[in-house]
């Protein structure tokens, strides 16, 4: 089953991934982690929720932390190109008999809430409160100096099906892993905004959120964060890295927040705006696709993820999961 | 005269800037400069011309060096989204009574040659030969490790008119400099591909090409190039920098090739894909817009540029050009 | 007059430069500059004085800020190898009919106060309070992340005489600038601790302190400081750089504190511990010795300096001071 | 058994570590590894041997590769302060009934060959051919841009005995690992040249050479090398890292040459010239001393090393070697 041809004229125009809402069990601990340690900027907070943005973002929030009993991801948010795209999106999801509703969301305009084919909770909006630029207020930079939210990565029980669904929405595959007979996709990276990905899927029990990534300027920012975390009580929150992925060529670090939500710190990326940009194929047996430099990932990285609110996860359709090289 | 509202639904879809063709007087000297010193990769060469690409590019060329008597810029190239966009572009330019023709170009498909409102020679294509990825062949990286062509910057005798013209084509303003009464634009940065710019205009005798920029990973690559140039006979080719622009927040270095064509080495950029991304206004009197850190630019940087083939440059409509802070 | 042969068995053993005491006119403003902006750590403060150390230092202070009416440098401090070296130093200076006295200094043991041949106030000690290491307390790192004091640079009215004097004390020349006939030294860099310099001399009205340097890990720390200073009200305090010196190969930035005391931020250095390490000669006419990359220094950098307490400065014996390339 | 007090007035003056001689089984393969891949400079070569230096070194060689049947380390070389120190060294070793002889060595003056208390082959010299500086010939920089040899690390069957021996020679301990009762040293880092170490000892079957380290400017050079090695056929030669040691605070990478000789690429270091510089104690049970960021080292790193020519290795006197945290 080959990678589908890109849908260059989708029914509605998604600009980019926008934000994630996490349920966290200790709001204060999460605030310390994201604002004080990582360096995200708080744009609004009250007793129950905290909104954050990264340093070059003008939109009001790229992350919402909401106090709750059970750690999970409430929704993945995406920005569309116009109000009309919202209506077209509603039609598109409804036609696929997926649940759609218009919800009130603070700091956002009209918002469409829906789910993807496996139940991942999604929301789309066109308007979000715009804030003054702060990317040249260098006194605000600290921690890992996060510049922007970069992408989501989800476990999918059927990557071929997930890719087909998002491909129809206009997401284009940039890199992918197949088994050697090119029968099934093991993983795929898909973009809207012109980089390696806005959304990626990895084979596994799902749907679950594998990680949310933030883009930083250079590998030295990642090293600074490692030094900081390892000497301020966050050693156990370092899960994997630093290293370079073969796939995407990213210099990466994976960390876990106080509830276990996984965050990737990411730098290096490449431009993929050409409509005829050819996806790169990786063989499932090539260990360098995971880690160009050869160091193995811990088992937790392959197995653990964040549940999505209201979505029960099911086992992957792919039986034998080779832990050594997924 | 304010910045025009962005044209979010242009008549034809330009994906990004693509390439420049320079006339150079000593092909061997230019090859040494761009391939050996800067680190661009030669993809084709014969006695009269050399084609080069940067390290993450898949298209066949981002620069063509053509042997000739007089150093000038033959054309600025742009990639469109589809073959149909080429035809729509032809209609659009013809309607404005600008010259259009279909030209044969090696390694490119059907190519539309035209000129902008001030005579800047432009070409548009959809198809270019695609090459294998080399961004993970790290043995090829040397010099400044150029990853991709990033933008053009042109002198315009009337920046308001240039901006209005490119705005109609769908280029969106990200930052601009106005005089204090907001009557006239002094300079503007406009993008298609989601970064700060594909094309910028600066007030001055024009049209002339001010510079062509290449994107590199970190400021350390710029420092490496400075060390290399200053100890291998290229000291006089260093014109300005390193420094950080207020506008665009770029960490920059300006160098001159053996014929004086100006190249910017550029890192740091920010994402501008949101359709409601607000342009940043800079006052003409704010010296930090040019250099955030305060060091002045040399006079040559304000005055010198590359002539465009077949386009006579005229003086700016703005009389008093304050060299100290243009 | 050639560079003198190194005195490999000096009468007393100086380990390294140690600290400087500045008189500052606004203690709060200076605290903000050195502690909040640059990132030095306050180790003691009261109404009249502040003691600071850099991040990898174990000694109690590398800088003392003392409130006073007139900005000047009270003393340059050096650490010797043993208590006995203090007595030998006293003998050495007394024999040269230079003033010596034993002074009480907080946080230091027995301290010898004296002056060099041109009146530069010096102090020598063996014991200073030792503090716990903090170089792995990464939460303390901010600003430019200064790791240690690196060197002093002084204007001397007669560099040959200064070099001869410090050479007798065991300082060894690593690099120097001569006029073309090798008759006179224009500048010289001298070390005790095994790097390019603990002490340097530049021709000019003197004695005056040209600058005090701090060592930082990478050029990116310098860039971070430039971004920070230029957006927090310290733009006018940036005097020169970033750049690379030909001499010493240092990546440098020169800034001025609120009283005009000049600080160099310095990275890159090389090891000079070999007793037969050959000094590098630079010709006065070689412009790259000042700035490898070719950008000129501002006039203030050549002319301005900090007066030493109790030492009147006299004009240089070298008449024609070529501002363009000293 | 505590760390011995430093011997501040040793019988002879060792300046620094200087060079290592490796027996390699395939001279061409080793040349490719050290010169082409790592970036050391060849200063002499013939059919049987290759001499190399790093980029800021003036001495003729820091490494000698000698063709032979069996990979081993022939000798560790040290530079002394004067010819007289050589004679004093001969007396010192002879008094301890260790073998001494004067040997002819190319490019070196009079050379004393001897062995340490466990049979590690050592040589001392004062004079070595001095070469022109190349640290500002930036066209020569490639690979990992090695600036200088930094230190040796040896397995010792009795670290307390090794430390006592080198302490008498004037090496000073900067950091060390003890068991929790402070009865025995597990490892120790000792310097002469004013950094964290010229020589280190780790508990294990010995004497064997654990690694030879080279100093590079920034962590980005290490990342560049990882990218290069992993895409040019040297993936299997990457053994451990990148990471930061708790001990020494080094940012490190360990690689193996074609014969298995281990090389550390090392950056970050701190100044230790103060005679009263206090050593830092690490507890054997603290896992962060090995890796500040928590990633484990592979078993090979704990177990494998290079045999010394003519020195049979014996088991450590410490029985239970906790592989998880040595």
Automatic annotation (TrEMBL), chains A, B, C, D:
Keywords from the UniProt entry: Aromatic hydrocarbons catabolism, Dioxygenase, Iron, Metal-binding, Oxidoreductase
Top-level taxon: Bacteria
Parts forming coiled coils: none
Family: Belongs to the extradiol ring-cleavage dioxygenase family.
Domain VOC, residue spans: 16-127, 148-268
Name of the featured protein: 3,4-dihydroxyphenylacetate 2,3-dioxygenase
Cofactor dependency: Fe(2+)
Signal peptide start and end residues: none
Gene Ontology molecular function, alphabetical: dioxygenase activity; ferrous iron binding; lactoylglutathione lyase activity
UniProt-listed PROSITE patterns: EXTRADIOL_DIOXYGENAS, GLYOXALASE_I_1, VOC
InterPro entries given in the database record: DHPA_dOase_Mn/Fe, Glyas_Bleomycin-R_OHBP_Dase, Glyas_Fos-R_dOase_dom, Glyoxalase_1_CS, GlyoxalaseI/FosfomycinResist, VOC_core, Xdiol_ring_cleave_dOase_1/2
The species this protein was found in: Aquibium oceanicum
């Amino acid at each position: 089953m080959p990678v589908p041809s890109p849908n260059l004229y989708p029914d509605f125009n998604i600009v980019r991934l926008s934000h994630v809402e996490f349920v966290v069990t200790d709001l204060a601990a999460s605030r310390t982690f994201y604002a004080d340690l990582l360096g995200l900027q708080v744009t609004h907070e009250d007793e129950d929720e905290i909104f954050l943005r990264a340093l070059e973002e003008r939109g009001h929030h790229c992350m919402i932390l909401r106090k709750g009993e059970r750690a999970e991801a409430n929704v993945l948010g995406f920005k569309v190109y116009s109000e009309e795209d919202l209506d077209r999106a509603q039609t598109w999801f409804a036609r696929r008999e997926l649940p759609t509703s218009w919800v009130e969301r603070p700091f956002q305009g009209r918002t469409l809430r829906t789910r993807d084919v496996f139940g991942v909770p999604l929301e789309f909006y066109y308007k979000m409160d715009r804030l003054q630029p702060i990317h040249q207020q260098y006194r605000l930079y600290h921690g890992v100096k996060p510049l922007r939210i970069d992408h989501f990565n989800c476990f999918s029980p059927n990557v071929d099906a997930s890719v087909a669904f998002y491909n129809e929405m206009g997401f284009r595959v940039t890199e992918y892993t197949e088994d050697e007979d090119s029968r099934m996709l093991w993983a795929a990276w898909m973009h809207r905004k012109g980089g390696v990905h806005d959304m990626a899927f990895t084979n596994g029990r799902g749907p679950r959120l594998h990680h949310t990534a933030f883009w930083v300027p250079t590998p030295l920012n990642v090293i600074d964060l490692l030094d900081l975390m390892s000497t301020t009580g966050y050693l156990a929150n370092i899960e994997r890295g630093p290293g370079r992925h073969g796939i995407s060529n990213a210099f990466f670090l994976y960390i876990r927040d106080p509830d276990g939500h996984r965050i990737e710190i990411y730098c290096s990326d490449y431009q993929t705006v050409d409509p005829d940009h050819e996806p790169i194929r990786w063989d499932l047996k090539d260990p360098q696709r995971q880690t160009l430099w050869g160091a193995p990932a811990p088992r937790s990285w392959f197995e653990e993820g964040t549940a999505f609110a209201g979505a029960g996860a099911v086992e992957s359709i792919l039986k034998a999961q080779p832990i050594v090289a997924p």
